[in-house]
Amino acid sequence: MEIQRRIKDRSGRLLGLATLLFVALIPGIASAQDLVSVSFDPVVVQTGTSTKCTIHLTGPAGPNGVTIQIATAHPFVQIPTSQVVPAGSKDFTFDVPIGSVTSNKAATVNFSLGTRMAKASVQVLAALGVSSLKIAPGSVSGGGTATGTVRLTNPATGAGFTVNLTSSEAFVSVPATIVVPAGSQNATFTLTTQQVPANKSATITATSPGGQTLKSDVKVQHLGLAKVTISAATVVGGNQLTGTIKLTDPAPSDGFLVTLTSSETFATVPATVTIPAGAQTATFTITTTLPSAEVKDVTITATAQGASMKSGIKVTKK
Fold first, then answer.
1. Alpha-carbon distance 189 to 180, whole Å?
2. Which residues of 47-72 are buried (b: 16+ CB within 10 A; e: fewer)?
3. What are phi and psi of 43, to 5 degrees?
4. Looking at residue 202, what DSSP letter applies?
5. Which residue, 306, 217, 301, 308, is CA-closest to 264?
6. What is the pLDDT along the chain (318 residues), one digit of tens a residue?
7. Strand 281-288, strand 240-247: pairing
8. Nearest to 165 by CA among 141, 144, 146, 140
9. Which residues, 6+ apart, have CB-to-CB distance to 307 below 8 Å?
10. What is the DSSP string of 148-196?
11. Helix or strand or coil: residue 306?
């Protein structure tokens, strides 16, 4: 815009005309100082999702908007090479799709407006799934329990992460599902076993919603009688002896029941004896009376899980 003004000396005499030129700053024409900063929210995202990018300017963009140039060396951040901040906007937010990664990745994105530069970073987590499945102990006596641990590739988000569980054998039970809570990377579950007639193995499978599976084996040992011993081989009728039952492994949480019988009425034993949880042995009392002969043989039989063990004594009159 031009304005003419009369120029006079001190006496008021006209000396000439001066032309003044005014240049208006057009808001839509951005300068290097217009770009203040950029940011991603969230800055940590799962693969295959998206994040939001916000561009911050010093003031509202002019009628033609402001074009920001964008560059990144990480193609999984699917951001355009340029973005226009609309007219009148000071801050502008747009969606940025995130592609697939097979491992956790960090990406830096560069933004420029003339000589003004800014950058922002985003971390992309690989697809959430099960990274390991462990069972401890790896060997347990039938009727006992073990603990399974599921670990994820990254901490669970939102409402948590559900993992399906199955057992290949009926003698090992696991819950149908386990939920790893938000913010956690691990969760545990209980394996419950039953008595088995011989040593066996079962395979536990953990399956993530995406179909990824991991397997781990647990051995279930046959729990049975190892031996039956009696404190003396010979006893005078009317006295007592002590019998001891030993198992192949410690008894499970509900104990281990053993049935006892005697071959003779003058040597009596309790009908059953229970070996308590965690114990491997238990004792019982043999009560005798005088036999009909000078010496009589007695057989004590212990039975559990369909298997029997025997131990003999002699009962004498003197």
1. 11
2. beeebebebbbeeebbeebbebebeb
3. -90, -15
4. E
5. 301
6. 444 445 454 555 544 443 333 333 334 444 434 788 999 999 988 888 999 999 999 999 989 999 999 999 999 999 999 999 999 999 999 999 999 998 889 999 999 998 899 999 999 988 888 999 999 999 998 888 999 999 998 888 888 999 999 999 999 999 999 999 999 999 999 999 998 988 999 999 999 988 889 999 999 998 999 999 999 999 999 999 999 999 998 888 889 999 999 999 999 999 999 999 989 999 999 999 999 999 999 999 999 988 899 999 999 998
7. antiparallel
8. 146
9. 224, 225
10. EEEEESS---TT-EEEEEEESSTTEE--SEEEEPTT-SEEEEEEEE---
11. coil
Angle at 212 between CA 207 and CA 217, to 5 degrees: 55
Residue 13: what residue type?
R
Can you name the residues that pair with 125 across neighbouring β-strands? 46
Return all residues near 158 (Cβ < 8 A) that are at least 6 apart.
Answer: 182
| pTM for the whole structure | 0.61
Task: Determine if the peptide bond prior to 209 is cis (ω within 30°).
Answer: no
Of 198, 216, 193, 194, the residue nearest 206 (C-alpha): 216
Extract the tokens encoding 273.
Answer: 């004896």
Contacts of 94 (CB under 8 A, 6+ apart): 52, 53, 83
**Position 272: which residue type?**
T
